[in-house]
Amino acid sequence: MDNYMICNCKKVSFVDVENALHTHERFGDVEEAFKYVQNVTHCSTGCGGCYEKILDAISQIMMSR
Hints:
mainly alpha; Arc Repressor Mutant, subunit A; 3 helices; 8% strand; globular
C-alpha cells in the first residue's frame, strides 16, 4: 500500500496508522483500534474530517493481517 496523508490537521499518514496498529497485538473491532490509533497519533482530533478515512485505513490494515 502506498503511503498517503490521512489526517491533514495532525499530519498523520497511512504508514503512521499502520505503525501504531503494529505496536499492539490484537483489537476486538475497528472502533477499539481507532481509539488506540487516535491516542497514539492524535488523528481525528482537529476538525474530525478524516474519521472515515482513518476507519477505512484501519479496516484495510486489519484485514491484511
